[in-house]
Structures are given as structure tokens and as C-alpha cells.
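task queued by scheduler; priority normal; single chain, no ligands, no partner chains; default sampling; output format set to C-alpha cells
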Amino acid sequence: MEIVPFSEIHSADLKVDAVYQSGRIGNAGDDPLPHLVSVSNSGGFRYRGSLDALELVVLTSSLKDPDWPDILDPETGVYTYYGDNKNPGRGLHETPRKGNELLRRIFDLAHSGVDGRRQVPPILVFANTGEWRDVEFLGLAVPGTADLRASEDLVAIWKISEGRRFQNYRARFSVLDAPALQRAWIVDIIEGNAHSPNAPKVWSDWVETGQARSLRATRSIEYRTKTEQVPQNPDDIAVVRRIHSYFASDAHGFERCAASLARLLLPDIAAIDLTRPSRDGGRDAVGQLRIGNGPSAILVDFSLEAKCYNLTSGVGVREMSRLISRLRHRQFGILVTTSYVDIQAYREIKEDQHPIIVLAATDIADLLRNNGCTDPDSVQTWLEQNFPLGT
């Protein structure tokens, strides 16, 4: 990881994954972003120009807020970012720093043809490192993603806080395949000339065509470790433990829950049917996933297995082999577990290229959080409403 000292950032290029150090005095003047890209020294949304004529937008995040889980998926280059209406009491676009209004405008422009895209400013994404005010550069982003329609990349979602409902935006961006941004282009942007010859070609291509070439990073190790499958923060751990304890005396009830979690993960599931407890033959559910739309769509069969284990008990080779043995030609499997798949079993399904999706404990916590269940109490309500015990 490249680290750029505070004394050099005013003339530095922007490099993906490089850390730009802050000052060490202990006041607002330590913030590196005003020196790096000439924006203000506070806030998750920072921009140059006005809302009617944006010149540059900077998005910053800690990436650690469990209620608003901003996240960069390095494998797809998709950056998910939540707006700034994070507490009840205001309308969606009535935030003091106008962050949600900014999101609305740049996404509208991005979907308005080449003339609209030429008005979308460069969007620079940074993450706080947790060390002083240091920031890590995550990349140059544009609104939208290749796999989402225009109506799906900026969505107003409902949340509840203190018993009151309110809305906030969830925005999806594509981080472009631009490993480094030249200082000369940063200077051009500050001077109001983002479309200069110094602009990276991948950004200029997006402006002209609307096609975003994302920065994608293939995992060197395709299987996940136990640490990557088990939640690390206390809130997520409590959520998963609540699910495990709820179904402790009703394993078949967890199968219904696992089927619902699979639908959250794969919204295009067309049908999913639970098998009878005494006749499941190792499969807890079978279903079909719809791929495509309308008359051209196809249905692909899958089998699902649910394992309601505690966080210290992993799914081993024996359980995984049972699911693998049930898969037929052109079928895939889904394993849903409140724990993790041990390293040997995970390595085998990856090395042998078995088409199995693993939905582990941390994935369950992420899915529920993204669907409004952010703590054990809200998860308990979701469980009681959807999976009453003894039915």
C-alpha cells in the first residue's frame, strides 16, 4: 500500500488504494482532502461548484456504519453509498448539506444522454482509514451499474428510527478502471475544465457512450476463510445468534427462513418449495431461478440446504458432499447456514467447480441489514411475523 505523506499531497496523483495522510496537529486543518482536491474539510458529501453546476464531487465514508453499510465490491467494481438523510425529521431531499439532492441530480443527468452525462462531474471516492484523518482513495466513479436499470440504481428506501419512519437514498456507482488520476487532470477540474485532454480515457468513454468499464479484481483465493464468513462486529453477531436461538427447537422452521433468505439474495427466484422433513433426501428445498425477462426467460433448477448451526460449528465435507450428490446436470445448489463452511469443504467445492452458492452467517447479517433488520429486536419481529414457531 502506497502512503503519501501530508507534505506531498498537494502535488500528488490519485492512485487507487493509496493512503493520503492527514496532518498531525489535531484540528480541522489536518484534513487532507482540501489540500488534495480543493474541497471543504468536513462531511460525507463534498463538492466544488453549485448544485446547478457541479464541478467535482467527493464521497467519503468510514465503511463501518452498520445501519448504512457503504461498501465497495472489488470483484464487480460496484460502490454502494447511502445518502445523508440518516435520521427522522426531514424530507428525503431536505438535508442541510443537500447530499440527497446532489445524488438525485447527478443520477438524473447520467440517464439523460450524452448532453446530460457531460454535466456529471468527476466523482472521487475515499474511505477513512481510522488513523487520524487519513483517507484511502477507492477510485473514480460514475452513477449507475451495468446490471441495473435506470430506475434501480438510485432508490429511496424506508428506515425506522425511534419508532418513526423516514427515507434515505441507496445509490449504486461503478468505479472505473482508472488505476491512477494525473495531478494535471485534478488541476484542470479545479479550474473548471474536467473534459480536458488530461481526463482518463475510460471516463471520457463513459461520457460519450454511457458504458462504464469497471475496475474489477478477481480473488486470488476463491474460497472464504472462517473469519470472512463469520460476523466480526457485535451487532451482526447478535443478529445471527438471535436467528440460531429462535430455531433451536425447530430445525424445519429454519428451512423456511433459509428459503426466504435465498429470495432476498436472488430476487429472480420464480419458485421455491420445501421438501417434507422425512423425505427430503438431503435437500431442504428445491426451486427454480428465472434468468432473463418475458418469453425469452429460462428457468434453472436448484437445490437448497439449510444448516442452523451456532457460530462455532462449521459445515463440513460430509454435509457439503450430501448437497453436491443431489445436484443434477445444469442445476446449482444453495447452502444457507448461520455459521460457516470449513476450509476443506469450501476449498473442495471451488477447486472441483461445483456450482454452489454459500450464504454464511455474515452474508445473512448483511442481507437482513440491507432489508431494514439492523438489530436483534427487529430481526426477532421479522422472525415472529414470517416464521411463527410450531406451524
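post-processing summary
- The chain has two domains: 3-209, 226-386.
- Confidence is low (pLDDT under 50) at residues 278-282.
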